[in-house]
Design goal:
heterodimer, A: about 100 residues, alpha+beta, two-stranded antiparallel sheet, 2 helices, B: about 425 residues, FAD/NAD(P)-binding domain, 8-stranded mixed sheet, about 30% helix
């Protein structure tokens, strides 16, 4: 698989380490009243779709940036790649 | 029809005209006591034990394709019980005992062969870890034995003992482990269940659950509604997809695991060997092909095929352990979709919906678990109580903090 890095262009997927569902960016508020339940769902439960999946890849053997890759889990086709930092800021996080 | 040596001779003398189909192809009825979704190893084993041990008279197995078309036909056929955590040692210990008596139970030759599984170590740390595993297994009633280099050399002269980076310094053998013929396991369970009246419906995909007042009363299928007082789902690989139709989010990711087989060779490996330095294991099938595998592709996948990079790393591991493999031609490779759970251990439990039960999360050890999984799931479906040997495999253990993490790597499914 080739991942089209937004800064570096197409890179071999072997340069990356896979983490999982990009919803891991949305870390729950630890002060929320139901924080325990939210953290259980955040840590353990996954949608695990057959089809389009937004996921976190770390460019370990490259520029060490985190990417959000939109990939089809049935065909392995990659349709969109963005920097995780930008994706996080777009969701209202400070970094 | 019972199979026997006498029967084989009689058929041989009468032109083999007396053999019938091994199981029926019935039309689904409107209503059953128990519906088992998934005609793989676990589903068929569940149906067999429901009918034979728990005396359930009205059981149906629904399979979306043909039976055995999923992971039970896409594995490397290893049978073993080499675990350290208490929940796993008792469960897989039970499974191994069921394997040892499987053929007599099913009246079917599943070619169970306890040829031994040898795990190699290459340094002092590896030896200490194996010694601890061997002791733990023996204390739990299993078998484990340390071998020195000379003993291994007698069994496996073809290994590279003097690899400069990873010399073989000894190993650990689990003699009761081995292999079984995976398709025969499917067929044996299907035939045994069918003979006791279980309906096996192929090409019948479950498209949804009918849930009324918090109770599951049956399933919607491509062949119409089928009612059931209890519904048990055993569709590992596709668990998240199917259970989402009942509103459940599971602690599971689906990953692809590849396996490989070479052309047939003369007898070379008497048992199963696992490499201690890389993730690689190999055995030789009765036809002579070298059957081997390694790591997951490590990203979510529902494609039953893998990436070339993993093929590359598996073959590198193989060549550094068994250099003569370089002359063998690779015949086939295939991938199976694994339910990778968040702690590396399976789930056999009720759901929050009355009458709906779940069996899944087998990671990449589902094949060896087939008999015990079937027995424990049948126990749960029939009695509504968890089997004593599967009492830890609860769905809510993640919420309660009682994870069973054999490798100690936390909620990272691709590392289990």
């Amino acid at each position: 698989m080739l991942i089209n890095h937004p800064l570096l262009g197409p890179r071999d997927a072997q340069e990356f380490i896979y983490l999982g569902d990009a919803r891991l960016i949305d870390r729950p508020d630890w002060q929320a009243a139901d924080a325990q339940e939210q953290f259980f769902e955040y840590t353990y439960l996954r949608d695990n779709p057959a089809g389009e999946h937004k996921e976190l890849w770390f460019h370990e053997y490259g520029d060490r940036s985190w990417l959000v890759v939109t990939r089809n889990t049935v065909t392995h086709e990659i349709t969109h790649v963005e920097l995780a930092s930008e994706a996080a800021r777009a969701r209202g996080r400070s970094k | 029809m019972k199979y026997s040596g006498f029967r084989v001779i009689r058929e041989a003398l009468t032109g083999h005209r007396g053999w019938g189909p091994a199981w029926r192809d019935p039309e689904p009825k409107d209503q059953y006591d128990i519906i088992v979704v998934g005609g793989g190893g676990h589903g068929l084993a569940t149906a067999h034990y429901l009918s034979s041990v728990y005396r359930e008279l009205s059981v149906v197995v629904l399979e979306k394709s043909w039976i055995g078309s999923g992971n039970v036909g896409r594995n490397t056929t290893l049978v073993r019980s080499n675990y350290m955590l208490a929940e796993n040692t008792k469960f897989y210990g039970m499974s191994l005992k069921l394997w040892e008596n499987l053929e007599q139970d099913l009246n079917y030759n599943a070619m169970v062969s306890q040829r031994g599984i040898l795990a190699l170590h290459h340094d002092d740390g590896g030896r200490d870890a194996q010694l601890r595993l061997a002791n733990t297994m023996r204390m739990a009633g299993g078998d484990g034995e340390m071998l020195d280099v000379d003993q291994i050399r007698k069994l496996y002269p073809g290994l590279d003992f003097n690899n400069p980076l990873f010399p073989i310094t000894g190993g650990f053998i689990h003699r009761r482990g081995g292999t079984a013929r995976h398709d025969a396991v499917t067929w044996g369970y299907a035939r045994a269940a069918d003979r006791r009246g279980v309906d096996i419906i192929q090409n019948c995909e479950v498209t949804g659950f009918r849930i009324e007042n918090g109770k599951c009363i049956g399933v919607e299928t491509t062949r119409g509604f089928i009612g059931g007082k209890k519904t048990g789902v055993a569709v590992a690989g596709r668990s998240s997809q199917l259970m989402a139709k009942a509103g459940l989010r599971l602690p599971i990711e689906s990953h692809v695991l590849q396996a490989f087989v070479t052309e047939g060779l003369k007898p070379l490996l008497p048992g199963v060997v696992t490499y201690g330095a890389g993730h690689f294991y190999i055995s030789q099938s009765d036809k002579g092909g070298l059957v081997f595998g390694g790591d997951l592709d490590a990203y979510n996948s529902y494609a039953q095929r893998g990436n070339i990079a993993v093929l590359d790393s598996v073959l590198e591991g193989g060549l550094s352990l068994l250099p003569i493999m370089s002359r063998a031609r690779l015949l086939r490779s295939w991938g199976g979709i694994m339910d990778m759970s968040m702690d590396g251990s399976p789930i056999i439990d009720k759901t929050h919906i009355d009458g709906l039960y779940f069996n899944g999360g087998w990671c990449y050890g589902g094949f060896k678990a087939t008999p015990a999984s079937g027995m424990c799931f049948a126990h749960l479906l029939s009695t509504d109580q968890p089997h004593e040997n599967a009492a830890g495999f609860r769905l809510d253990r993640f919420r309660r903090g009682y994870v069973i993490d054999e490798n100690g790597v936390g909620p990272t499914p691709n590392l289990h």
